[in-house]
Each structure stands twice: as structure tokens, then as C-alpha cells.
Please model this.
Amino acid sequence: MQSNNSSLAQNERKKGGGLRAWLILVPFALAGCVPFANFASKPPPRTEPGPIQGTLPAEPTPATTATRESALLPPVEVKLDRDPITGMEFVQIKGGCFDMGGPAREVGHQSYEKQHRVCVGDFSLGKTEVTNAQFRRFNPKHSSSQYKGVSFDGDNQPVVNIDWNEATAYAQWLSKESGKKYRLPTEAEWEFAARAGTQTARFWGETSDRACHYANVHDRTSRRVNTDVTWKNHNCDDGRVMTAPVGSYQVNPWGLHDMLGNVWEWSCSTYDPRYGGAEKQCSGKDETSRNRSLRGGSWLNEPNSVRSAHRINLSPGYRYSNIGFRLLLEGAEQL
Ligand SMILES: [Ca+2]
Ligand SMILES: [Ca+2]
Model:
């Protein structure tokens, strides 16, 4: 549980001196007993942070690239569906079987990331996290809030401060409006898409310090501004101290942006540390209070939390400035 708690702490830190409070509250959050729906949020200005700054590290050359660092597969041809109401793009993904979880040798590996074989069907997944503009079609009054004067409310920033119930309600609303079938992805579908055929800790390889090509994480830029954060940063510059507009970084081999980093993403699955099958399905109607699994890490997280196998779990009523979601489209005709 150590790493999982660490990840959660990284969520709470942004609340403003909230680590101490978190240490008190997290046992209750893990038990799903404390509703965190009342996080204060001042109405922020609707401006986006400036463009990406800083210099990204150079790509390793083939001569110096180790075998496991060569794992980034060549991009496949991406076939898209487009939602008629929001314009949201969905990448068609052919189902298959894969090794979910990570091997014990992986740096940061936890017991609840046990590697096991899982198969998923065909689906389409949002090319990006759901944005503020897309969410405001559903709830015009939603504010993603701000921190240290930097707004989370830009049109193209991912919507945050969204709990599981609101994310699910959004999928149901858009399904009705569009005549399509949207929902959150299961944990298995999410990891299948995040790995995109890779078996390394991250879809670009094992090295966390190359993250800044592919993901908005707790990086050197973040460390310079978020001086109250004490955990390890990625040793590179992604140019962002808070959320980045979706699609700012390189896609994974299946054409998906920000599967790692930017914001944690709610799955529809209840959390089971033993991987007993809940990861392959959405939570049932009688499981309203059970914790849900979230994936991918965020702009505030250290390297061990930004891995394809990593998982945290939170109460469905929890919301925070580094938690958002993306949608899955069921039943799209595979082109
Ligand atoms: Ca960053
Ligand atoms: Ca993400």
C-alpha cells in the first residue's frame, strides 16, 4: 500500500497544506466513508497557462537505446469516430488479450499490480481526456478551479474536480444526446489501450526521465513552482506546472494522448487489489459506495505513479484538481 498511499498523497497536496489533513483523512477515503465533495474552489479566471516552455531531452539514438527502451512501437493507422454533439474523437481499438499488471522486477511494482492474462473486446476510446469545453456542454456551471493563480478552466484543459458520479452522469447524458453508447472504460480496457501493445513500464519504455516527450507529469518545471511538493520529480522539463491542454504531448502507438500523466482517469471498475475479475467489468448498481480504480498518474505525480500498471482507488464521491476522465464508445463499427 505504500506506493498507492504515496500517489493519493500527491493528489491531496495541491489542496494547500493538505498533506497533514490527508494523513488523517485517507484511511476514511480508502474506506469510502468520507465524502470529499466540498473541496473549496474559487471561481477562477478562464485563461489557459502559456505555451509549453523549456527544452525537451533529446530522443536516445538507436545506438544507445537499450532493448527495453525500444519498446515504443511504430504508430498504427488510427481510425476515428467523432461524437456529433461535442466533436470528441474516439480511436477505434481492436480487442485482444494482454498481460495486465506488471512484472515484479519493474521499478515501483506493487503487490496489487499482479501480472495476469486478460482479454477485452473491440471498443473505441477517447483520443484525449474530456475537456472543460466538452464537459460544460453538460454542466455550464462546472468549475475545474485554479491553483496559485493558474486556472484549470481553459477550454482545452482536461476537466478536473470531477467525481465518479459526475463522470458517469456525463457519459449517460452524452449517450442520450448523441444516440450512441458511452461509458467509462473498465480498468482492463484502459490498461490495454494505455499499453498499446507494449509491455514496458511506460508505453515509451522503462525510463521515467523521458516522460516529458509523452506526458505532463511532476517534472523539473513543476518542482520549481510547486515548492511544497517533497516527492521525487521526473528529471526532465515538460513545461507545465498544472494541467496541460489535452493533446499537448506525443501520442502512444495507438494514437491516444495523455494515457499517462496530465490527469488521473476514473475507470468504471470497482477496485480489487487481488485482481479477481472486477477489473474486467463496470461496477454494479449495488456497489455505489465501493471505491473505484483510477489510472495513469497526473501532472503532480512522481515516476512510480506514472506507469501503465499503476493503480489507485478512491471513493466515488472524491474530487480533486488532478482527477478527470475519458470516455469509451461501445459498439462503433470497426472500419
Ligand atoms: Ca508538468
Ligand atoms: Ca491521463
Remarks:
- The helical segments are 2-12, 19-30, 132-136, 164-178, 187-195, 220-225.
